Amino acid sequence: xxxxxVTIRGAxxxxxxxxxxxxxxxxxxxxxxxxxxGAGSSGGVVGALAPHVPENWNTxxxxxxxxxxxAEGFWTEVEAAGGQPTGYGRTGRxxxxxxxxxxxxxxxxxxxxxxxxxxxxxxxxxxxxGLGPWAPPSxxxxxxxxxxxxxxxxxxxxxxxxxxxxxxxxxxxxEGPDHGAVVHAKxxxxxxxxxxxxxxxxxxxxxxxGAVLRYDAPDAPQLFADALHIIPHANGTVAIxxxxxxxxxxxxxxxxxxxxxxxxxxxxxPVLQEAPVIERWAGVRPRSRSRAPMLGAIPDKPGHxxxxxxxxxxxxxxxxxxxxxxxxxxxxxxxxxxGFRFEDNL
Length: 346
Prior knowledge:
Layout: E1 6-9, H1 13-24, E2 29-32, E3 48-49, H2 59-82, E4 93-97, H3 100-116, E5 123-127, E6 142-146, E7 150-151, H4 154-167, E8 172-173, E9 181-184, H5 187-195, E10 203-214, E11 222-225, E12 228-232, E13 237-241, H6 256-268, E14 277-288, E15 294-297, E16 304-308, H7 314-331
């Protein structure tokens, strides 16, 4: 048996993306997950690639921006290799502006975006009139339109990554010994393991619930209002999400909180009032103590690395995470930003 250069434990979007990038750089990869690809929060339904607002810039926002700009090329290569769609589309986003203060702030952020987004994407204030039935109701008559936001179909993305890896001879196995560098990308379960025996937690899970409606608007922008993400997908569905539950008893069970989300979404976006719900989903998203992805070497375990804590922005962060982690492991090139390291969560 040929020994692997890298063993990746966890087949969520971080683990799969890192595996893909390592294979692209010529590494032999072993991919291990006893539960299968996308078994945790990466198997969700929403798939919003929503950027942080263009203000108070920091390393996390810069990292996310760079990753979103890498996304089209990254996911195109995955699709080409495996022949399966990821559901990626940089379709933009609309947000209602409901009062004068919000309108002033939106204009200020529009100016910030010209510099912070480097002319590669735009945040503009536009009239809501003329946008058609998909436009969110806006009390001011104006909406924010940003061209940086995108969407993935989470399950399709995981499937496309598996297909791309298979095309390069990498198969997902339920068990296997460590060979070479070991990457721990086990999501919520991995954070629970890290917390054991420590006086301070390094991360926690936040439950989210989402729903899928049958509504065909494959090229429409995503909508954001009343803390709700409304994401049209290419397969004739619209995903709605999600709740944010820091305390929960049943991690994979939907309840009245999701029904409230569906009710609010239909009230905020009348175009969805008659769209039937075809799926309800619940899962736990991993959030690190620092609230940024936890990346890099594990100090007290030579040869072991971590990639965890994607929380709500894991799919948007994945292309950059994959490049940074593969460069660190295979080329000893450390580009982990401040606030993203293992020790930043101690």
